[in-house]
Each structure stands twice: as C-alpha cells, then as structure tokens.
Amino acid sequence: MFNQPSVSAAPAADLSRRALLGAGGLAAGALGLAASAAPTSAVSAPAKAPAAGATWFLRNVRLETGYEREGEEVVATRTELKTLKIDKGAIAAILPAGAAIPPGAVAHDAGGLLMLPSFRDMHIHLDKTFYGGPWQAPRKRKGGIAGQIKLEQKLLPELLPTLEPRAEALVALLQGYGTTFARSQCNVDPVIGTKHVEKLKAALDRHQPDFGYEIVAFPQHGFASIGLEQQMRQAVRAGAAYVGGIDPTTVDGGMERSVDLMMQVALDEKAGVDIHIHEPGESGAAAISRITDITARNPALKDRVTISHGFSLMSLDKPALTELARRMAAAGVSVASTVPFGGRVMPIPALQAAGVKVFTGTDSVIDHWSVFGSGDVLEKAKLACQLYGWSDEQAIGQALKIPTGGITPLSPTGEQQWPKAGDAADCVFVDAASSAEAVARLTPRQVVLHRGVVAAGGFKAARA
C-alpha cells in the first residue's frame, strides 16, 4: 500500500533535509511531497542553511512590539525590523535593524517576514497513519470503539513494516506548516507490543536536531482490563516519556482501578501522564477529578499530566466546571484539545481563565479513524476564534497561544514578551502584518526554524 502518491501534500517548497528521504530511501512522489500545494517560499534560491549549533545572524526580521489603540480598543499591532544573532540553537541577541555584523560572519536575510513562535502539535498519532500511501477512506464503523479496536488488530501488523517512512513523511508535513515539536501517541497493545514505540523513536531520532518530540505509550485496546501493565512499563523504558490511558469506565472496565494503575506506573517509571478521555458526562468528569487529586498529592507529577480530549468538560455546569478547572490548574493538569465543533463546544475560555494550560493537536491526518486532518495546528487557533467569538486584533492575536503551547509575542496588554535573548530559536516566518493576520488568514509558513536549524523553507544570504 506504500507505492502510490499521497492524498496530501507537504506545504513548504523547500522542506527539511529529511523531507525527501524516507527510512527506505523513498522518492518524493511516494511520500506525496507535491510542489503544487506549496506556498511561495521566502526566496526562489535559498542560501545554504546554517549547521546545527552554528553562530549566524538574521537581518530584517519583523517582530511585534506592541498594540496600536484608539481609546481603549486595540486596532492594530506595531512591528519593528531587527537583526538576530543565533548561537548554539538559541537567540543570543536581538540587535537594531542596521547593526554591524562581524566581518566574515554568516548572515541571512528574512526579507521583512514576521517572526512568530513555532508550533507544537500536542496530540497526534504518528505511528498509525495512511499518509504517504494511496487514498483509503475509513470503513463504516461497526461496534463503536470496540469495532475499531478489532480492526486495528488486523491492520497494525500490516502497517508495521512501513511505520518509519510514513511517520517521517508526516513529520515533513508538520514541519512545512510550522510545527517543530510533537507529542505523539503511540500504540502499545497485545498485537504489536512495544514495537510501535521502538520504531517511532528510531524514525524521530533521525529528525534531530530539526524536530523535537515526546512519545506517549498509548493503550488503545485497554490497560488494566487486559493486563497490559508490564508492556506499558517496557514502553517507557523503550523511550516513551508519558504513560497513556483510555476511557477508564467505558473502555477499560473500571474507573478507579484503571486510573490508579496508570498513575502508579507513571510514578514508578518517573514518567508523565497523558490519557484519552472521550467518555462524556459524569464518568469522564469523575476520572478527571480523580486524576487531578492524585496529581495534587504527588509533586513529581505537577505539570506532567494531560487530559486529552476531555469531552466530559463540555457537559459540566458553570459552578462544577469552575471548581474542577481551579483544581486542575493548581495541580498542573493540562488539557490537549483538538477544538472539536458540533452540538457542544469545549469550554476552552473557562479553562484558560482558571489558569489551565490548553494545548492543541492534529490527532490524525489520514487513518482508519478519520481522513480530514491537515497537519496544520494554526487552523485550530482560527477555529477557536470562530467558536468563541474572538474577532478583534487583540483576541485573534492572543489565540496564537493555542498552537504555540502558550507563547505569544505580546502579552494580553501589549507588552513584548517574545522573543527574548536566551530563548530557543524555534520560529516560523510568515508574510503577515501581525499574529492576528497569520491566524485569521492561515498565512503560508515561509521558513521554519527549530533550535536554529532550518526545518522548512530557506532564507537568502545577506552581506555581513
């Protein structure tokens, strides 16, 4: 199934140095890296990219510096051109636009593009995807999640031999859209054991240093209910940084037993927790509450526990949601939401108001669950603006924190807070007037940096 053009095309004209090199030496056509879908690159002939850890300068970088106001209303965003010094993967200095550069120094020109923090896809399944292969729509679901799990038992062994090149093709897609970090859910189950974790880690390690990652050991088929404890421990030792879980009541057969085992394994293995909770209503809320209580009692888990999806939060009344969100924030329990839309809407504004960190992710691009993913987490910020009525310059610009993991160039009151000297050189460059325009118009990503390495696109050389 891995010898036909992909259903999707990577979005950047000059992808990372890995983009055209799958694990099996696959050609661009096999990986679906079609140039016709690429945005305009920053320059027609990019200069040679700086090496990892190199010292170099970047001229004509446009940075946001504050808000323009009419009375109390924000009506525009101010920007200025700067020169950046990048050293050992970090922004070493922010200099005036015309600053002198040492003779002989490597210098590139951003051409006035706006620099934004690069994006983080905090919930994606890189290990089981049809991306890179022929079009394949999902089968009609029979038997709900249980039916999908049964299908996986047949499908995953068939996909295993091509897991690495498919995952790498998907990484190239993400990079072209400005994502330089992903937290990938990765199946651990009785059918494939820990092989997905091992193969995915090998694939992602080949993308160092142009892509960062974390792996979640995800017990899609059940955890406590099927006796998966030892394999989950092995998965962490094989490279997973997080212990996952699945709907404790509706899939794993018992909320307290399921949650307690997941949390205990994480504590024992010094890992974080990232659990899928799709189940709505009281059972899902009870699981989130129990996870929050255990986290609050164990400082080692603070800021290392994530509720993925968390659909039950949509069904809580305002007082119950406010109280649970307050406890989650105090314990450092975050939420990874795909910003679903439908009859009910995730209460992201209420969670953020309580101090809960809210991340977003692609979930799937094309697999046996869904084929509607684009790989562009900036879309999630735009969708959030539409869902929650964030329609002015300030609110749209602040929505950028959803795909960046919480970072915005300006604070809500307009103070410049990114970048600062010492920040990692994780950046995306767009031809836009402000963060707000980039979010609203999904402005094409022209150049993408991760730790100072060009992951997608390219700059032109500048005279020192």
UniProtKB/TrEMBL annotation:
<dbReference type="GO" id="GO:0016814">
    <property type="term" value="F:hydrolase activity, acting on carbon-nitrogen (but not peptide) bonds, in cyclic amidines"/>
</dbReference>
<protein>
    <submittedName>
        <fullName>Deaminase</fullName>
    </submittedName>
</protein>
<dbReference type="InterPro" id="IPR006311">
    <property type="entry name" value="TAT_signal"/>
</dbReference>
<dbReference type="InterPro" id="IPR013108">
    <property type="entry name" value="Amidohydro_3"/>
</dbReference>
<dbReference type="InterPro" id="IPR032466">
    <property type="entry name" value="Metal_Hydrolase"/>
</dbReference>
<dbReference type="Pfam" id="PF07969">
    <property type="entry name" value="Amidohydro_3"/>
</dbReference>
<feature type="domain" description="Amidohydrolase 3">
    <location>
        <begin position="226"/>
        <end position="436"/>
    </location>
</feature>
<dbReference type="InterPro" id="IPR052349">
    <property type="entry name" value="Metallo-hydrolase_Enzymes"/>
</dbReference>
<dbReference type="InterPro" id="IPR011059">
    <property type="entry name" value="Metal-dep_hydrolase_composite"/>
</dbReference>
